[in-house]
């Protein structure tokens, strides 16, 4: 699926006081939009995801799957700061005629939603039937449902939260410390900090999975084994794998974006913000998630009016939302058959 670019040529002020000298958003679409936009499914991606959900949510989105392009007009946008086509630290700052590199400003979830709004208006979409996302994607979806409560009919929030926890911030800071410890990080070059990012990804995997996951999937080969442990080679592999498709600047920007997520900022309170959501809302937690613990999703379900909470029983921790397609499909189908309009 081809990626389309939306270009905004004007200065774009940011929530925390910085600005972008214009920006672009990379997005993909699947399916055909109805004349009244009644079949729009907008999906928000997670930390290192791209604008193509058939790539990273391939058990849920695609022909013959739960979200089938023959029924839905599916759109997903790469967030600002990411590596997959939207404006990021490697982009040219039109004011300086050089890449942003370390001068790239902090981007918040809220900044992204206002950028998405510009794209939505450009596309003439005045109604989103279903808005869905997990993790960082769920943070985006929630913020949007608060900012534009009358726009979104149905909301699916998976393994996400109302504000990022101190535990989550600590994990992200540890990863950024690894990037910062890379001596190349201060250099103005596209691969700056890449070795540090490999370590950061290794740290992240520990929060995406858990003790039982590793005990099951990375067990010793034998009692006599003394080197080349699966758990060790797996960590190295995951760092190398990400280094081939991502950059440390984007990793830094998006982990900061996650830390800055707080729907209560500059509003009366977190609970007041959640009370503004008007969409029919499904909140899904994962039983073994140690990064976005189920208590955070239960909090959302308690304070979003008439929201429903369901839980995936998974060995795979936070990554369960990218793995447990069968359970997720069953939860979605049950929720959708309770009288929620399908718009198809």
TrEMBL record:
UniProt-recorded Gene Ontology molecular function terms: homoserine O-acetyltransferase activity
InterPro entries assigned to the protein according to its UniProt record, in alphabetical order: AB_hydrolase_1, AB_hydrolase_fold, HAT_MetX-like
Main localization of the protein described in the UniProt heading: cytoplasm
Pathway: Amino-acid biosynthesis; L-methionine biosynthesis via de novo pathway; O-acetyl-L-homoserine from L-homoserine: step 1/1
Pfam family, one: Abhydrolase_1
SUPFAM superfamilies: alpha/beta-Hydrolases (SSF53474)
Top-tier EC class: transferase
GO CC terms, sorted: cytoplasm
Binding annotation for substrate: 201, 319
EC number(s) recorded for this UniProt protein: 2.3.1.31
Domain AB hydrolase-1: 40-322
Catalytic activity as recorded in UniProt: L-homoserine + acetyl-CoA = O-acetyl-L-homoserine + CoA
Keywords on record: Acyltransferase, Amino-acid biosynthesis, Cytoplasm, Methionine biosynthesis, Transferase
Active site: residue positions: 135, 289, 318
Localization terms from the record: Cytoplasm
GO biological process, one term: homoserine metabolic process
Function noted in UniProt: Transfers an acetyl group from acetyl-CoA to L-homoserine, forming acetyl-L-homoserine.
Quaternary state and interactors: Homodimer.
Similarity section: Belongs to the AB hydrolase superfamily. MetX family.
Name under which the protein is recorded: Homoserine O-acetyltransferase
């Amino acid at each position: 699926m081809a990626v389309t670019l939306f270009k905004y040529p004007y200065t774009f002020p940011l929530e925390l006081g910085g600005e972008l000298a214009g920006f672009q958003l990379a997005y993909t679409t699947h399916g055909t939009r109805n004349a009244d936009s009644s079949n729009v499914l907008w999906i928000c991606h997670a930390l290192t995801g791209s604008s193509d959900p058939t790539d990273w949510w391939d058990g849920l989105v695609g022909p013959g799957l739960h979200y089938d392009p023959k029924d839905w007009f599916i759109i997903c946008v790469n967030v600002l700061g990411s590596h997959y086509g939207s404006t990021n630290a490697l982009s040219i700052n039109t004011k300086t005629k050089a890449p942003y590199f370390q001068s790239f400003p902090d981007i918040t979830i809220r900044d992204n939603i206002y950028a998405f709004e510009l794209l939505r208006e450009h596309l003439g979409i005045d109604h989103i039937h279903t808005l869905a996302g997990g993790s960082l994607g769920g943070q985006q979806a929630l913020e949007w449902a608060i900012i534009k409560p009358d726009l979104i009919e149905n909301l699916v929030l998976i393994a996400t939260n109302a504000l990022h926890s101190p535990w989550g911030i600590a994990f992200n800071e540890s990863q950024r410390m690894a990037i910062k410890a890379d001596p190349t990080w201060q250099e103005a070059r596209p691969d700056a900090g890449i070795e540090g990012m490999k370590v950061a990804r290794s740290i992240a995997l520990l929060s995406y999975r858990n003790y039982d996951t590793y005990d099951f999937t990375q067990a010793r080969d034998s009692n006599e084994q003394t080197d080349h442990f699966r758990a060790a080679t797996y960590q190295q592999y995951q760092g190398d794998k990400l280094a081939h498709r991502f950059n440390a600047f984007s990793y830094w920007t998006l982990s900061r974006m996650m830390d800055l997520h707080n729907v209560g900022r500059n509003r009366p309170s977190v609970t007041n913000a959640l009370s503004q959501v008007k969409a029919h809302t499904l909140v899904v937690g994962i039983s073994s998630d140690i990064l976005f613990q189920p208590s955070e999703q239960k909090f959302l379900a308690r304070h979003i009016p008439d929201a429903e909470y369901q839980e995936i029983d998974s060995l795979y921790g936070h990554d369960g939302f990218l793995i447990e397609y069968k359970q997720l499909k069953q939860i979605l189908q049950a929720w959708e058959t309770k009288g929620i309009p399908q718009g198809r």
